[in-house]
């Protein structure tokens, strides 16, 4: 090697060391969680919907892992989000109500300030963090995202049907009143400040998406955590002009197809910025479809019931994990829960799990990277603060059953119903009589689990 | 160019002309139709089934066109197959029964000998033809496949539950009696001769597959038509040893996963023989899932009802078209019917449509090759020989409704029910009152269609 070429090599090394530290120490991976609101198990093309077109999510699924047995932590918005953000069953944080199922406009509580969100945990490792979309974990100042570990918040404090101007919301508000925006008085916040009220809900998905892309651009040189909980397809439904009458499935389809577009925008941004190979993107929904909203609600596909229910349709969700080069394409049938996103995110970022509390989430990394399996054996189905059902392996025992938003009283089963979910995903055939040892085993698990539950202040 | 190189060019040309006629005149394409029996709309991975694993069909769908709105010609075996084979609504050929819905063991009739099957039509252009699997278009000698245009037949004459040895078939025969083969006395035919009776049903899918592969190998140098109608997942269910307890979905899943394996074997053979780029492979089922068979029956996913019904679950089927290099990957939402396979096959082979009869099938080629759309506007839903419902565009009017195998009388609707299927695939919301002009238009279509129906001898 000549003297000049040696010199050039040293210069090149110094330049590389200065401007591309990633060459020498792998940058911690970015994490993006995209959450739909009230999207059903059967609402995407890749989950078998006959008429809704979701090419971006279908492609994401084809390039990543599509889960068939992914559950959320609760069957309605608030507790589901509390579980996702903290990795703890909502009952542990007071986020499982007794009379109310979610935080209402009049609720003074929220996610307790001593709870640790994914964002708060990741900040300790220098992550830039943003929540873009619907929060619904408390609207008093101390509970807002910017007080729970997020550098930036752009979105609604709660559901888009929670601030109607003219009293009671008509059942089919979303279809018959569209586009009468004046019914709704949602406030759009930026950090702790109201930016717009009433919010133009029809441009919200587009504006959220622009904010998400801006956040990615601004933070491409440092690890980031983007939590992107969409407002839709929760009613009232609104789509931007580009997506109105876009779908054969009517306004509900328009809204889902705009969400699909949004996912495509995020993935394309990551690809273009060269970040895709260092970013885990996870897509799911907060709970099942709101069936009582008729055509303004979604479809649970082959599953029973929807939002508000502890039948499968209420809590089993479409879920896709995407990370080019790290995650290999697959359909995954293992038992997974949204709580596991907390633990997995912390593990990916190299953050130790909080030692002072019960963490229910499990590390999904071996399963995601094809080196192992889901460690999850148990799934607990709560309705408000009561345990209604438990899945262990492929069996699910129902202690109490209740149709989503039925006015009938819940039915308590002294002898639990039992379904084998892999054989009978629609929960049609009770097999308790043939499997007494399975029922007994699940009841033992319930007893064990209940020992770990400590009474805390309810937040609703 | 030198004299020697000119000479070499001529030699090369002569060799090419002798051994590779395909270079100069494209060989007519091969056509393979694979038909499952009683498989439901929701039973494949790519149509959203949560636990049945169908990697070969999923891959076929990812490489080809997956249809969301593909219909069969009838809601039970015999008339559905008659429609597929002739391109004519079964009512035209006497293949729509009045009391019986399918040909029974005691039936003396069959597909009339003057009907023209795809096989008979393609033979006129030198196609090798085989029917491997279940026929069910007449078991008297003159109605067998070998008398209807097929060079070769290997399979059962009718359904696998039609020759029980001990009288009435128990409802859950398929699960509780498996593997008690002695209940069933099916005859396996090769051409016109009984090869085996009782047939070992557990090895049937494997043996059909071996026969199909052998037929492809033997005919790789000439155009061929392979009609491959599987016996399963019609009850009683049997899987070969390699697939017993293969599936989380129990025996039904085992059987479907073995079918999936079989499809993979056929496609792999075509790939290995270099035939894939000159072969259309079409996969579908004869009718919806047999829901009254409980766990031995399949799932219609988000659709209503199943086999025997004119609700969507009875007649809308999984359908995949595959032809590497010719068909581009897509999800297709257009209205298509199994009748169209007749017309499309004849067009691909360069055979003129029979001029002496009504052909209801339409040419799918423009849609398959991405140069146009489905020409189909209308779908007629018969139950036996009565017209129950009609789809035009995205609207479906029900003149009569009846749950699949219910003992209740069918319900006649003086004023038809109307559903918008793209918006409401589950047929939940009757929109007749809001769309009187659509109902009137469909009733006019019915009147027009009925003029084309000529009374013929019923075959059942």
Describe this entry's structure for a reader.
The structure is a homodimer of 460-residue chains. Chain A is α/β, with parallel strands linked by helices and 460 residues long. Chain A has two domains: 353 residues, 3-Layer(aba) Sandwich (Alkaline Phosphatase, subunit A); 72 residues, 2-Layer Sandwich (Arylsulfatase, C-terminal domain). In chain A, 26% of the residues lie in helices and 19% in strands. Chain A contains eleven helices and 15 strands. In chain A, strands 1, 2, 3, 4, 5, 6, 7, 8, 9, 10 and 11 form an eleven-stranded mixed beta sheet that branches. In chain A, strands 12-13-14-15 form a four-stranded antiparallel beta sheet, covered by helices on one side. The longest helix of chain A is centred in the middle third of the chain and has 23 residues. The first copy, chain A, is globular. Chain A starts with a helix and ends in a 9-residue tail after the last helix. About 3% of the residues of chain A have low confidence. The interface between A and B is medium-sized, with 35 and 35 residues.
Pick out its properties.
homodimer; Alkaline Phosphatase, subunit A; 2 domains; four-stranded antiparallel sheet; metal-binding (chains A, B); alpha/beta; glycoprotein (chains A, B); Arylsulfatase, C-terminal domain; Sulfatase (chains A, B); 460 residues; 11 helices; eleven-stranded mixed sheet; calcium (chains A, B)
